[in-house]
């Protein structure tokens, strides 16, 4: 195996320049563009000193062609002891003219799909996770393409993680399907809420608040039939795979009310770096447009609002755990409440350029504006 270790070392040093980092060649080594393992260990320690927990991106569905076990298959073919780590057909051929066919992730053959039913593959990956916890003291994992990962693998992974660290957090990338399939006591704690992601920017662009209001009510309302009323899903207005919110909105003034919905709606609000400054980036322009290097912060009024709203969310249990109910809804206005253990918070969203007087039963004689601290009738 020494020759393959040398190959991996060269691959880590030389082949990342034009990749997005998801073509894993070595689960034991940090992407060279980001530094060394010691740098990563210091980074996590510094985060913990400042009360910040760190979650790794767990890419377990597939590896890169440079992964040592796959290289062994290319070299030794049927004689490779790792041939069952992947989905190989030695009677076919690949886009790379390997003289064999293999399954890639969604047709991307630079990403070789792992056989997560294979006990040897599972134990190899689980041992790497144990090392990440022991060496770097990480606090959780975000599972890449969780929507297609073997469900038994998730169950076993959770047992491995919580046995090492009881508070370990597991979240999955879920684009479509029923989130209950992977977010449950036996598997993951959370998943990405793509259903409501689209509804947020679309409601503003079409001036139709009914879209996001109905999405939230149908998923998180009080009725028994609401699908996700007991789940804590990860909400977002953008991420590393989709167009930035500042580029997605027709009216840039809607950035702040869009974040207002995100911070007040059910779930865990997630902020994608740089979008809290209003930077732009379009999906059609590629990964580099969505994931730019940001040498220095660009704090502005958007940053101030997001920071204040995040603080309000963190400090109020009604926003973290509360029920959801719509109080007032028009095409341009959306008012809803969150309640938990006697605490009530009302979110008021106005997509119009003009002031608006809403007539509805707030069930309260007075209130406090959590953004300003001012009291009002």
Summarize this entry quickly.
With 377 residues, the protein is α/β, with parallel strands linked by helices.
Description:
With 377 residues, this protein is α/β, with parallel strands linked by helices. The chain contains 12 helices and 16 strands. The N and C termini lie far apart (73 Å). Residues 1-16 have low confidence and may be disordered.
Low-confidence stretches: 1-16
The computed structural class is: alpha/beta
- What gyration radius follows from the Cα positions, in whole Å? 23 Å
How would a textbook summarize the main sheet? Answer: 4 strands, parallel
Helix content: 25-40%
Q: Average pLDDT across residues?
A: 93
Q: Whole-Å distance between the termini? A: 73 Å
Count of helical regions: 12
- Count the E strands: 16
List the helices and strands in order: HHEEHEEEEHEHEEHHEHHEHHHEEEEE
Q: Strand sequence of the main sheet, in spatial order?
A: 1-7-8-9
Shape: elongated
β-strand percent reads 15-25%
List keywords for this structure.
alpha/beta; 12 helices; 34% helix
Topology:
Elements: H1 2-14, H2 37-49, E1 55-58, E2 62-64, H3 68-76, E3 88-89, E4 101-102, E5 104-105, E6 108-113, H4 119-136, E7 140-143, H5 151-164, E8 169-172, E9 190-191, H6 194-205, H7 210-220, E10 234-235, H8 245-248, H9 255-264, E11 268-269, H10 287-290, H11 301-315, H12 317-321, E12 323-329, E13 333-340, E14 343-350, E15 367-368, E16 375-376
Parallel strand pairs: 1-7, 7-8, 8-9, 10-11
Antiparallel strand pairs: 2-6, 3-4, 5-6, 12-13, 13-14, 15-16
């Amino acid at each position: 195996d020494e020759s393959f270790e040398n190959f991996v070392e060269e691959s880590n040093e030389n082949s990342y320049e034009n990749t997005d980092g998801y073509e894993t060649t070595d689960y034991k080594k940090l992407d060279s563009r980001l530094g060394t393992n010691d740098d990563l260990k210091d980074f996590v320690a510094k985060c913990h000193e400042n009360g910040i927990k760190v979650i790794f991106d767990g890419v377990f569905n597939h590896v890169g062609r440079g992964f040592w076990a796959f290289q062994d298959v290319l070299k030794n073919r049927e004689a490779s002891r790792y041939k069952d780590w992947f989905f190989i057909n030695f009677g076919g051929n690949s886009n790379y003219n390997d003289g064999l066919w293999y399954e890639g992730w969604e047709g991307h053959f630079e990403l070789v799909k792992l056989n997560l039913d294979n006990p040897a593959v599972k134990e190899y990956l689980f041992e790497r996770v144990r090392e990440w916890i022991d060496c770097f003291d990480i606090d959780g994992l975000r599972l890449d393409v969780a929507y297609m990962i073997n469900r038994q693998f998730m169950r076993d992974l959770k047992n491995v993680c919580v046995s090492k660290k009881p508070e370990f957090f597991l979240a999955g990338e879920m684009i479509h399907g029923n989130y209950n399939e992977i977010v449950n006591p036996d598997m993951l704690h959370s998943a990405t809420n793509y259903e409501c992601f689209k509804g947020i920017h679309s409601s503003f662009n079409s001036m139709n608040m009914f879209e996001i209001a109905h999405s939230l009510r149908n998923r998180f309302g009080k009725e028994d039939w609401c699908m996700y009323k007991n789940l804590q899903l990860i909400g977002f207005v953008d991420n590393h795979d989709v167009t930035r919110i500042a580029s997605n909105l027709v009216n840039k003034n809607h950035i702040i009310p869009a974040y207002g919905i995100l911070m007040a709606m059910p779930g865990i609000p997630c902020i994608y770096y740089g979008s809290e400054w209003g930077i732009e980036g379009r999906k059609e322009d590629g990964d580099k447009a969505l994931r730019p290097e940001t040498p220095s912060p660009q704090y502005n009024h958007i940053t101030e609002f997001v920071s204040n709203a995040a603080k309000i969310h963190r400090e109020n249990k009604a926003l973290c755990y509360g029920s959801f109910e719509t109080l007032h809804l028009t095409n341009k206005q959306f008012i809803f409440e969150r309640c938990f253990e006697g605490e009530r918070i009302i979110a008021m969203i106005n997509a119009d350029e003009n002031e608006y007087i809403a007539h509805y039963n707030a069930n309260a004689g007075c209130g406090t504006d959590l953004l300003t601290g001012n009291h009002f009738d």
